[in-house]
Design brief:
Elements: H1 2-24, E1 65-66, E2 70-75, H2 90-102, E3 112-121, E4 131-140, E5 144-153, E6 158-169, H3 172-181, H4 185-205
Antiparallel strand pairs: 1-2, 2-4, 3-6, 4-5, 5-6
């Protein structure tokens, strides 16, 4: 009986490893080089958003890029983003994924807010190294959109964090109030949406 009990921790670790391997097999691994970061496919940014705000000196000031199906970005965390020494704080990684995944809705001409976000931290993310972030749609249920994203170490293509979430579509009336509050920023977004709509229409005709 004692011998069986001693084997339990090893069995537990074995099954955890099997579980992780199974999950890794369903993660879509992409090569960052296949996704360009140019002015032609860059999404608009806000002025003071913590993640993308161009004028937020305390923010991440990230640029986001997209095609018709996916959103991606690159982020190199610095010392002031740390948790344990040398490791990025999980809250920063969560924030980056929340922003990246939420931006997928723009590809479908929708504005959303986060309803639920679940993360799995596979490995610690190091400071001072380029991290690759990407996200895409899983299912569009109309009022809600199920989406997923991941962060990986760009140098090795190794997945560090995975996330999935349910994002709730903002009602049209509330959306218009939000757009009005953007002021001069609204024109950037409206021009981008107009180009996106035209691109989607042209693709559907091919």
């Amino acid at each position: 009986m004692l011998a069986k009990l001693k084997r339990l921790p090893n069995l537990f670790l074995y099954y955890i490893n099997v579980y992780n391997q199974m999950e890794r097999s369903i993660v879509t691994i992409t090569e960052p080089e296949a996704y360009p970061m140019t002015s032609q496919n860059r999404q608009p940014a806000s002025r003071f958003c913590f993640v993308c705000g161009r004028e937020n000196a305390n923010g991440l000031q990230m640029n986001f890029f997209s095609d018709q199906h996916k959103v991606w970005a690159e982020f190199t965390p610095q010392d002031h983003h740390q948790s344990w020494p040398g490791i990025v704080h999980g809250g920063i990684l969560s924030t980056v994924l929340d922003e990246t995944i939420g931006r997928v809705a723009f590809l479908y001409d929708k504005w959303v807010q986060t309803g639920k976000l679940e993360l799995k931290f596979r490995k610690p993310a190091p400071l001072g190294e380029a991290l690759w972030v990407e996200a895409e749609l899983i299912r569009d249920a109309g009022r809600a959109m199920e989406m997923k994203g991941l962060i990986k170490l760009k140098r090795t293509n190794e997945v560090l964090v995975e996330a999935s979430g349910l994002f709730i579509r903002i009602p049209e009336q509330e959306k218009q109030k939000l757009l009005a509050s953007l002021g001069e920023e609204f024109s950037d977004w409206e021009n981008w949406f107009a180009q996106t709509r035209q691109s989607v229409t042209q693709s559907s005709l091919l």
